[in-house]
Amino acid sequence: MKKILVALAAVAVLASCGEKKHCDGCCGVDLIKAENFQQEVDGKQVDLYTLCNGDLTMQVTNFGGRVVSLWAPDRDGKKADIVLGYETLDRYVNNTGERFLGAPVGRVANRIGFGKFTLEGKEYNTPLNNNGHTLHGGLKGIDMLVWDVMEVKPESITLHLVVPDGLDGFPGNLDITMKYALTADNEFVVTYSANTDAPTVCNLSHHSFFNLKGEAGGTILDHVLWMKADRITPTDAALIPTGEVLPVEGTPFDFRQPTAIGERIEAQNEQLINGKGYDMNWVLEREDNGQVETVATLYDPTSGRCMDVATDQVAIQFYSGNFFDGTYNGKYGKPLAFRESVALETQKYPDAPNHDNFPSVVLNPGEEYTQTCIYKFYTK
Going from the N-terminus, what domains does the chain have, and what CATH number goes with each? Predict the structure, then answer.
């Protein structure tokens, strides 16, 4: 009888957690304080929301629709926050370090060469915010805008944003709905839908930086990566695609068998030298049929944590944290250091508006852009 009462009490505690806007520690982790984010930006209210399901706990702010923390257990059941982030809203708004931590990126993820593209015979110019090129939507990408909170449940949050016509040079009002959900199977599911009132370009992606040992937990060179990808889109010295699509066979970019990230990262290869490590787009071995399938797995032998990446997209950008230098600290006061994080960004090809041989990212009125990306966590 006593055991039954204890179990019922535990259920009641969990139920009360689900009813609250902010989980007050009942998810078994040391959460970032919501009050650190509760203020107005551009006349709109910003907050920090906590989601719990399965063994996962995640905190999300509607400033930029960012994942601030994501807690997952290791093989011994000990939880760690496995994404990079900042502990206050101010560090995102007035950012002097890595801008894109935990953010959705767009309206065009990745790079647009020289900040120029032509659509229906008209040339558009976008901000040169990365070495003379446009990166992740420009100066006011979707990561720097306040999203409207449409619905919050214990395990999910739905956000909405209208990116105005002409912002950072892009045409059309882009209407985006994005949902983050945690499942009982320890999945973090990201879904997007978008439409436009004028021809535009749209290629969204999610940009969490993962370290499966925990934020600032040390090198990711011992993380083991598998990707279902047989080609890459090589880049020039400024990391802009050349337009070629080349096989990975016999190169340091072949992850079709599980391989430690550090095993070939120092190879004398022009692409690796230009990016100071891995920072390019892999073409997935799949049909562009809208079906979601697993295309990558990241494994940390130290903690036993594994992360599968599933998507309906045709490509994935793998970045090995090469441009962190320890100058800035993460949310727990530890430096965000060189090659201590991994980004796996599902998307279409970078600089697609400037390459006719790449899958199109044009979105027209009456069409709907959709994308699903699933990060699934488990241990071994």
Answer: 2-379 (2.70.98.10)
